[in-house]
Amino acid sequence: MILTDVVRIASTAAVAFGIVTGAFWISALAVILTGLCESVFTPASRALLPLVVGKAELLTANGVSAVTRNAMAVAGPAVAGGMLLFVDPILGVLINCVCFVLSALALVGVPDLARGGGRPPLTPRGYWDSLKDGAQAVRSTPWVWMFTLAGGLQMFLVVGASSVLLPVASVQTGWGESAYGVILAVYAVGGLIGGLVAVRIRRRAAVTGAVSIALFSLAPLGLVQDSFAICLILVFAGGAALQVGNVLYDTLFQQHVSQEMIGRVSALMMLPSTAVLPLSYLIVGFAADLVGTDSVLLIGAISAAVVTTGFALLAPVRRLELVKNE
Fold first, then answer.
1. Nearest to 232 by CA among 162, 185, 294
2. What is the pLDDT of residues 101-153, one digit of tens each?
3. Could you tell me if 154 and 245 are in contact, meaning their C-beta atoms sit under 8 angstroms apart?
4. How deeply is 111 buried, as exposed, middle or buried, from its count of CB atoms within 10 A (0-12, 13-18, 19+)?
5. Measured torsion, CA atoms of residues 239, 241, 246, 248, in degrees rounded to the nearest 10
6. pLDDT for residue 293
7. Which residue in 22, 102, 189, 310 is deepest, having the highest Cβ count within 10 Å?
8. Nearest Cα residue to 146 out of 308, 260, 300
9. How many Cα neighbours within 13 Å face the side chain of 304?
10. Quick one: which H or E segment has residue 76?
11. pTM of the predicted model, to two decimals?
């Protein structure tokens, strides 16, 4: 995780360099490198958390993480908007470098859990052996591959469509140029509340998480409303529901997957979602031109909600519970 932060310090600086010099291909390559680092950082962070806190505290720890992320998602755009009034936009990119420096320094403060008996040693494996072990763990755990499939469909049907069409829809509705930023801020506030709520859920966590993620699928329906107030209510509810689902499933994952496999399995679980997202971006644009923005959002939201609700009814999911306090 520290190594990926160091790489992202350099890649973010390269983004700024490409913008200043007009060499946008440098910025594009640097952004790709930053994304690759994120694909390493996220599974590693999921594997690290159970080593830092006990199983009984995992739900609270994941909830606090979700609250922090969403609080920053509210504060970040506000700070950025204020900066644009007074400083050159390139400074905002350079501040990202500082953020990655702070992240790396924070991680340096985490004890070396590989020493002193704090962590069971990983079995030395080559890359392909690690990949095979992770794939076997995913295949042999039904709820894991079911959730991986549901997450990929959710990403394709909802996240891709919303990401591409949210700016378009907010302009077409005539809500004004500031509507896009307001919608993102309200979504983040919903996520903050969802993180606080999730830490209180102890019973039927897997089913509750799946239903919550299904409710998130309905958030794009706010973009097809004439009323901006109704849109904000649905977006707020969607942000809260998604964070409830994410916190619960991160906790279930960390509690029920063997410690040595968490990083490998988490990386493989991310693979379908990250693979389908560029395809979703590509298809959504053409589909919106053919049938309209509202139709694409409606079809994606309803389809994803039905699929994820069906996932909640499956036996391996219904039988999954949070581990009781030790």
1. 185
2. 999 999 988 876 655 555 555 566 778 888 888 888 888 888 888 888 888 88
3. no
4. exposed
5. 150
6. 84
7. 189
8. 308
9. 32
10. helix 58-86
11. 0.81
Helix 142-154 to helix 262-291 angle (10° resolution) is 30
Is there a contact between 179 and 314 (Cβ–Cβ < 8 Å)?
no
Instruction: For residue 229, count other CB atoms closer than 10 A to its CB.
Output: 9
How far is residue 204 from each of residues 92, 186, 209, 278, 322, measured CA to CA in Å? 43, 28, 9, 34, 8
The Cβ of residue 305 has, within 10 Å, a number of other Cβ atoms equal to 21
**Cα 50–Cα 8–Cα 100 angle in degrees, nearest 5:** 65
| Mean pLDDT of all residues in 179-207 | 87
Q: What is the C-alpha to C-alpha distance for residues 248 and 90, in angstroms, rounded to an integer?
A: 38
**How far apart, in whole angstroms, are the C-alpha atoms of residue 296 and residue 111?**
48
Q: Which helix (H) or strand (E) holds 189?
A: helix 179-198
